[in-house]
Records
---
Amino acid sequence: EALSAFAKGKTDLVKRSLVQQVKPKELHTGTEHAASSDETKKMRDGLSHYPLSLEIGGRNLLKAWHAGVMLVTGSDAGNTLVLHGPTVEREVELWVAAGIPPEVALEGATFNAAKLLRADRRIGTIEKGKEASLIVVDGNPLQDVHALSALSNVLLKGERVRRTELFDQT
């Protein structure tokens, strides 16, 4: 999605509400400028020759899931238009749009990710004795996956993270 948007000089991905809430304004404007500037035009033109397709990616993801492959989210954060933080929720949305059941997509972002990292004894599920690092959302992502973008609280090891204070420290 990000490579296709970048090839077209579109910056809608950094204009998403959750991205706007959790990233400094300077990062938004800098990313938007870089993604549509003359300096990156040659790179964007080169990418436009590749068959980048969410539909193909979605079909391949479904095939892998039907074949029994353990699905794990990965954001590619750090690439153009893919900012650290609010990227996994977008990937989960794309998985569900491709036909992956919401509970499978959420498991790919939580338990499966922790298991792959061999950290499932500490994180990945909500259980007594595990780190209480989680997001609390307004709504039920099993019914509407877009609820993942409606953060009401963030906890890191049981302590509430005050997001506004994070920007004050930069």
---
Amino acid sequence: LASSPTAAQLCESPSTLTLLPRLFQLEGTQDISFSSCDKYCKGTPWVTTLLQLVEEGLIARDDLLDWTLESLANDWIQFRSGWFSRLHDALQPMLDELNTRSDSYLALCHSRIGPTVSMALTALKILQKGNALTGDALLVALGVVLTGSHKGQINSAAKLLDQQLKYEPELKTDCVQA
């Protein structure tokens, strides 16, 4: 991870591509991580390389999304987690991709890393617009956010809950009891 290879360099040794999932399982260190490399090293950023590999069909987009969400679930320090949030944003998941992973986004609301929670709330907002959420699951996920200290996240969570109450008025009873 010391410097980002280009997609072409990774393809020179196809066995290297099989190591990618393992790299997403490693937090790295202050000196060697995806986030450090993309911020401090010269050359093509890892994000660019990975997106190119997806575009060329050398790694599956679904796999990259899953690896990214699994890495975010590890709650690594904000500097390293932020890289995975930015990769997620660069992938621009569509509604069906978000829907398939809705449980992951609900779970990420419990993260201790602010940008991870913000990313999850953004995904949940899109899912809600697509009518792909249930109130009970949303209520459990947002309970942690609503009792947090980040004003922007509290406001976003309250708006999500308010909108969900329009879809599921019977959820009001559960909100009062929670």
